[in-house]
Amino acid sequence: MLELPAYTEHLKEGILAEHQKNNNESIENPGPLQTYEENLSRGEFRIQQCKDCGQHVFYPRLLCHHCGSNLLKWVAVSGRGTVYSTAVVRQRPEKGGDYNISLIDLEEGPRLMSRVVDVDPDEVTIGMAVSAHVGMIDDKPAVLFYNKEQGDKEW
């Protein structure tokens, strides 16, 4: 149940009605995160770019964190990147084995967290050139990276 301070009790009915309406109706104007996830589900890796300052923006948001503009458009990216930092997560083999978590600097500027999936987790190195593709993590679409030198998985 929604808990509100006593002095706002008179607002409770309206807030609950709005919450019910928002959770039962389809979203006509999706937010940036939903748009990003829908693009991934179609196999498209897109990020936002500010129409005012021209900077690329990631994580999806309503305002440009460079200049504060709300004029953001969705653009396809090259998919090329460089490993900025990496760590190995150790797991038992029956739970899927070890994997890496890496911070990747995209050619367009933003940094994102992902995985380099085609090499042993211990072999992922800072400065490694990588290329993006849309894959799956825990049955959800996600941006994953290949070691660029391992093949033609170029975006």
List its traits:
three-stranded antiparallel beta sheet, globular, 155 residues, 2 domains, OB fold (Dihydrolipoamide Acetyltransferase, E2P), alpha+beta, single chain, five-stranded antiparallel beta sheet
Summarize the structure.
This protein is of the alpha+beta class and 155 residues long. It is built from 2 helices and 8 strands, in the order ααββββββββ.
Please characterize this protein's 3D structure.
15% of the residues lie in helices and 33% in strands. It is of the alpha+beta class and 155 residues long. The protein has 2 domains: 7-76, no CATH class; 80-150, Beta Barrel (OB fold (Dihydrolipoamide Acetyltransferase, E2P)). It has a 5-stranded antiparallel β-sheet with strand order 6-5-4-7-8. Strand 5 (99-106) and strand 6 form a beta hairpin. The chain is globular.
